[in-house]
Amino acid sequence: MNIFNLNKIVTTLGVKRFLECRTATTKTIITADGKDVPKKKNYENRITLISPDNSVSITDLKNAQSLSVRRDLKLVKIQDVDSKTRRPVFKLMTSAEYHAEELSKRKEKQIARQNTLIKGEKLMTLSSRIGDNDLMTGVKKMMKLVEKQYEVKVVIAGEDAEAASKSEKIYQVIENQVKTMSRIVQKRIKGNSLRFQLLPLRDSSSQGANNTNSNQNDSDKGPL
């Protein structure tokens, strides 16, 4: 065997061994003692996926996104991290389900804001025969309570045969005076009385301060 062929064989064996070593190092990690440590799989992108039929599967985010595109569905995160699996939870929804879920979340947020806003409840009872000055004094009390973030329950008690028409006029006066800083809900007639509630608006404190003077000026004109 000549020198040329021998060099060729040596070179070929060297390249082969180099490739084998390189392949081995990409698959395993070798410790200082020379032991192979299996490479750990990466589960960072693993998620729990709930299908429209409520079946549950484990996949990765990329596959879930591809699946949502193929099926023309919305991929929605419904939980950041599950306490048991430590994985985020996603759900595939139809457009109708997605919009219903969004409306539900908005209602929950609105209720939460309202509950946080209201400090408590106050009851005010007025007679259907109340005079103009006393009525305006009562309206000012309502406005102060609403401005302090209280829910005010108002009862206009009937006193005579014309109670219904008088109570309605009193209600109109109250509504006109407080409409810039509160909203009236659950207006109803129970027996001889007219009842409703005043709920503070989210920015009622600033609105009330701006409108107090104008309401006081209007009171001079007489409510009825």
Tag the structure with descriptive keywords.
initiation factor, alpha+beta, four-stranded mixed beta sheet, Ubiquitin-like (UB roll), Translation Initiation Factor IF3, about 25% strand, disordered C terminus, about 220 residues, elongated, Translation initiation factor IF-3, mitochondrial, 6 helices
Explain the overall architecture.
By secondary structure, the chain is α+β, with helices and mostly antiparallel strands. Among the domains are: 44-95, Translation initiation factor 3 (IF-3), N-terminal domain (Ubiquitin-like (UB roll)); 118-219, Translation initiation factor 3 (IF-3), C-terminal domain (Translation Initiation Factor IF3, 2-Layer Sandwich). It is 48% helix and 27% strand. It contains 6 helices and 10 strands, in the order H-E-E-E-E-H-E-E-H-E-H-E-H-E-E-H. The protein has helices at 3-27, 61-71, 95-117, 132-147, 163-178, 204-219; strands at residues 28-30, 36-38, 46-50, 56-60, 74-79, 89-93, 120-127, 150-157, 182-190, 193-200. Strands 4-3-6-5 form a 4-stranded mixed sheet. Helix 4 (132-147) crosses helix 5 (163-178) and helix 4 (132-147) packs antiparallel against helix 6. It is elongated and about 70 Å long.
